[in-house]
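Q: What changes when coenzyme A is included in the input?
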Amino acid sequence: MIRGKKIDLVAVSMNYLPNYHKWINDPDVVDMLGHFDLPISLEQERKWVEKHLSGNESEKIFTILTKNGKPIGNIGLADINYTNRATTLGIMIGEKNYWNRGYGADAISTLLEFAFDTMGLHRIELRVNGNNERAIACYKKCGFKIEGKRRKHGYYHGEYINEIWMGILREEWDKMEKKESKKG
Ligand SMILES: CC(C)(COP(=O)(O)OP(=O)(O)OC[C@H]1O[C@@H](n2cnc3c(N)ncnc32)[C@H](O)[C@@H]1OP(=O)(O)O)[C@@H](O)C(=O)NCCC(=O)NCCS
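A: The predicted holo structure follows.
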């Protein structure tokens, strides 16, 4: 378990299969993710869990629990490259009544600390739909910078939208951490 301030990150578990299945089929939750074909059957979701139970060098997926032990979403690192020490971050808070309450930012900051300080990574990047304002605000709050955009990359409710690329480097994270500890 990796402890954050508002959340803990734990391994993917078959115990949470009903939660994963509910989240991945909720159109509001996956609306901005852009690459899901609803509906996802329980069997398909079970296969996803099975795949992640055995772990994998190039991916680390966690379930986000509140401090009361309630599962509210998943977060992970994909395409981990140990030569470049770089990876791609993804997150989904599946319980909508937990949006806008700082859980996403805490889960991301907790994972960034793990990735930089424990795994020794150097760069973390992500991609987000240009109209996902909440996610972009959350990523900026966590220290990500906009690095570029792919114009009209995704098709969303009848129009083409931009995909924004964001990234954070270890030295930027270290500076933020120092600022925080000075405040404290
Ligand atoms: C994106 C997501 C991870 C963010 O997590 P969260 O817990 O809701 O985010 P936080 O509360 O930590 O931060 C959200 C910030 O966005 C701001 N925000 C919300 N809606 C906004 C909008 N329309 N425009 C600008 N800012 C907005 C909030 O005010 C908050 O900033 P603040 O703390 O400075 O006030 C979560 O909402 C989620 O999983 N959504 C569905 C799936 C998804 O979009 N995943 C990301 C795919 S790239």
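Observations recorded in class: The mean pLDDT is 95.
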